[in-house]
Amino acid sequence: MLIDRQTTLRMPELKGGTFRTTVILLGGFFSVAFIALTLWASHTAQRDEMVRLAHSYSQAVMTFRAFYAETVVGRVVGVVEITHDYHDNPHALPIPATMTLELVDYMNTRDRSLAIAQISDYPFPWRADRVLTEDKRTALDALLKSGEDMLTWTTSEKGGRMLHHAMAIRMEATCVGCHNSHPDSPRRDWKIGDLRAIQVVTVPFRAGGLLANDPLRATAGFVLLSFVVALLSLFAMDSRVRRFLRLAHDSAIERAEAATALEEQARDTRAILDNVLDGIITIDQRGIVASFSASAQRIFGYPEDEVIGRNVSMLMPQPYRSEHDGYLARYLSTGVAHVIGIGREVTGRRKDGRHFPLELSISETTHDGQPLFIGIVRDITERKRVEQLKNEFVSKVSHELRTPLTSIAGSLGLLAGGAVGQLPEQARPLVDIARTNSNRLTRLIDDLLDMEKMAAGKLAFDLRNEPLMPLLHQALEANQTYAEQLGVRFALRECREDVAVRVDRWRLMQVLSNLLSNAAKYAPRDSVVEVSACVHDQTVRVAVKDSGPGIPEAFHDGVFQRFSQADSSDSRQKGGTGLGLAITKELIEHMGGRIGFESTPGAGATFYFDLPIVDSSNVSDGTTTPPDTTHGSTGNQ
Amino acid sequence: MSTLQRILYVEDDLDIQAIARLALENVAGFTVHVCSSGEAAVREAGAFAPDLVLLDVMMPGMDGPSTLAALRAQPPLANTPVVFMTAKVQPSEVSHFRSLGALDVIAKPFDPMNLGTQLRAIWDTCPR
What we know:
Low-confidence stretches of chain B: none
Largest sheet of chain B: 5 strands, parallel
CATH superfamily of chain B: Response regulator
Oligomer: heterodimer
Number of domains of chain B: 1
Shape of chain B: globular
Mean pLDDT of chain B: 92
Number of helices of chain B: 5
Number of strands of chain A: 18
Structural class of chain A: alpha+beta
Number of domains of chain A: 4
Order of helices and strands of chain B: EHEHEHEHEH
Largest interface: A-B, 30 and 25 residues
């Protein structure tokens, strides 16, 4: 389950390396593309700008030449001489071509950032020395061939890259006649529109192109920097998102594991609850069943769905069924509980209508702030049946054992008492042995019955406030004969006459007889067994002290256990069943007291019990006759 | 106060019967009529007219309590003291027998030499 849950929740592998490499590659590609495009755009823009500059420059020269030819020369022709050799003639003007050539030479000297030249393949002799470079020759041929008026090209030269812009100079109507008639003209078949020459403006590329322009460079740098920052931000964001996802994933896993653990725990708990023999039923404050375990279903014979949501009183016979709601309401209003926190036996009702005994214990808890009662029910039908069988068996055995024992003890009693005449001297001790052992057998049966009843919790106690001393005297008197037979004397030491205790007088006599007969048995012949009743605070301690062999250290823990005797061979010698002190302890504890002993091996033993003192002014009249408890039980030492 | 003399003893066990009869007649000097069942006791009690009935509890047929009830149903015996002699001497059992109308309970095994003394002591407590 856990594995499945984790599998379903497993986050797709976050391939950070691949993602970042991809982003870096894309970023690099776009950066390079951006730079390349920027450079290309810069170069193109610069070239266009240079072409425009060159064209304007060239156009200006051409315009000035036309202005000169039409406006100046046209007005003074015939008045002054128009010649290429005008420098030494103050009444002459240069012909337009000469003026233009000298103008561009003059402009070249004024502005060295760009150069302008006019080249013709049919120069006048006085201009034949002008060199026609190869690229200009090519441009001239290209314009001649194409018939176009402009051509632009670039060259790389020592001083850097150059842009050349050539404009065609064509024959005007005002020029054709002169050129065809001039004696030094190298060609005389000019027609209007023929390519007379080309005017080439050469502009050097500026280093860095447009990027040399600060604002543009700043803009490009800013864009590039923004791009890098965006990329880094993306990386940072990616890290944060990745961390967040990891945390979210871990948290989801933890929650899933916790939920799985809870589910497993709930399932385990359910399995445990379903498999315990006891039925578990929960009800709310109105008595409505909230849960009904599998064991409860087995016990009552109802399936879960027939009980949940209904009143729990359906599981009870009358009159409990009718009383239940009222009981629950009283508990909720007064807080006085009769069964909550207390286990008790009640009667249940199965689905088939049969009644059965069950043991019920109820505890209270809260669920969503509301009281929730948890009832644990145990079907004790079988236990009850066994108990009854056992009781019947014990009763039967007791009777069957006592019947022959009555005959034996009676016969021996009559023989020993001389009812049928005097016994021969040698027969008397044998009859006494038989009587003693038949008495022992009787006490053993009594002890076994007492133990059985105590184990079953069936030993009845008639607790009353009784004065202690009369009971003590009575016990001493009852056991005196037995002690005398053993050559032991009882002596009452310090005592409080006015002490009363709450006891069942028969049971207290049984306790005292056990302790007194025990002490007499183990005390050395001709010794004294001391009895005292001393008051400490609100308790009285009754102690019986003998000067016998004491109790071995190793046996201290087992003194009050059933069938325990310090020495089995000794017990055979002294008699006893090993039940006396166990019974005594149970009896004293049932009467709210505590029993104990102090013993030093070889220096005797003191057995005592403590009982709470009660008001001596409110005691019973003590008329009830206790049964015969004379040295009634057994020796455990 | 009258003297205890005539005792109707009801006991199914013949051995115990013999011992008790010896104890009551020879040792204590009572006049004893013994019945071996509750039914016989109910039949013969009227004719014997006992001063006291000594009654076993567990018997086949009519047990002690049933016999007591049947004897009480006979007007001459309605107030005759009845003492149970039984092995069932737990305090609760003794209380139960007293509640049925028994004057007292003597535990089995009993001391045959003191049985008469015990019965006389019980007889003396009986209000008449």
